[in-house]
Amino acid sequence: MAERLACDGKSVLAHARTFPDLNSAVADCALTIATTRRSRRIKLEAVTPRAAAEHLLALPPTAHCALVFGPEQSGLSNEEPVPGAIWSAPSPRPSSAA
User: Fold this and answer.
1) 6, 39, 63, 70: least buried by Cβ within 10 Å?
2) What is the pLDDT of residues 54-82, one digit of tens each?
3) How far is CA 77 from CA 15, 84, 93, in A?
4) Residue 79 domain-assigned?
5) Residue 33, strand partner residues
6) Is residue 5 situated within a structural domain?
7) CB atoms within 10 A of CB 86
């Protein structure tokens, strides 16, 4: 199914690695940024997308990092914690009323 949905991303899928769980996938990452659409009551650092980018740019060029996305409509749930991650919620959209 992934190949059918990938359209022009088949080369990305061909080089993708699979892991038994999320913690294994991010174990060697110097920084993990998880995304969500909702406010959190988890004791993790929460940053704006701009601040998340600043964290990424501050890493050494050889450091591994991960951006973790959950379902498109909601992001990750509270039941899907990512140890040591910082959380990035979308910036508020500017009002379309002008």
Assistant:
1) 39
2) 989 999 999 999 888 776 666 666 666 66
3) 28, 16, 22
4) yes
5) 67, 86
6) no
7) 16
| Number of domains the chain is built from | 1
Q: 38 and 75 in contact (C-beta within 8 Å)?
A: yes
* Other CB atoms within 10 Å distance of the CB of residue 55: 16
The token pair that represents 81 in the structure block = 């914690």
Residue 60: both structure tokens together: 């050494």
Q: CA-CA distance, 83 to 44, in Å (whole number)?
A: 9
Give the pLDDT of residue 22. 83
Q: Taking Cα atoms as reference points, which of 84, 75, 71, 17 lies closest to residue 49?
A: 75
Instruction: Write the pLDDT tens digit of every residue in 30-63.
Output: 988 887 665 556 566 677 888 888 989 999 999 9
Structure tokens at 74: 């909601």
